[in-house]
Amino acid sequence: MLKSSITQSATPALARGYATRITRTLFPRHYRLRPKIESEANATPLEDGSLFIRRPTAGPTTSILSSTNPSPASVSSTAPGSETSTPLSHPDLPPALNANKAPRPEFAALTPEQIAEMRALRLENPAKYTRSYLAKKYNVSDMFVKCYVPASKEVQIARIKAQQRSFDSKGWKAQEIIVQRQKRRELW
Question: Which helix (H) or strand (E) covers residue 137, if one does?
Fold first, then answer.
């Protein structure tokens, strides 16, 4: 009894093995790189010597993209002479990207007189005539108001002082976080 337990402990345990990549074992390299061509009609040789392989669709109907002679009406998204585009509609096509997204708002093109009026309003009372207020009133973007009708220097200095007061009222840790964030932003 004693001898058998010694011989068992003297035999080495199973050697540790390392897992191989599953793609090497299941899909060897020569199998992965070999293109599958069902017929010569699906392969078109290109100028650089490579093959362009046209794959059939999985659905029961043939796709307009894989058919050899698609009708021009089904492929063309814009009719000649028309300015509006109609989306492609075919059962094999994937759904349109951003189909539920709201359309971009159409902004008005302002005349120089309207821009001058916006500047006068902004200088008259910058607290009332803010960027968002003027943007809604004249149907333009906030960025347009920022570029063409900036706030006066006094208002900008007052904002900087308010930010500095807010910074000074914070604790040392919050101040350090703000400083580190500004440093990271400068490195971008």
Answer: helix 131-138
CB 118 within 8 A of CB 108: no
CA distances from 9 to 12, 14, 136 (A): 7, 12, 85
Percent of the chain clearing pLDDT 90 (strictly above): 34
Q: Could you report the per-residue pLDDT of 11-68, keeping only the tens digit for each?
A: 555 666 666 555 555 555 555 555 556 666 677 888 888 878 776 665 555 445 545 5
Rounded to an integer, what is the distance from CA 29 to the centroid of its chain?
A: 33
DSSP string, 62-118: PPTTTSSS--HHHH-SB-TT-SSB-----TTSPPPTTTTSPPPPPPPPPPHHHHHHH
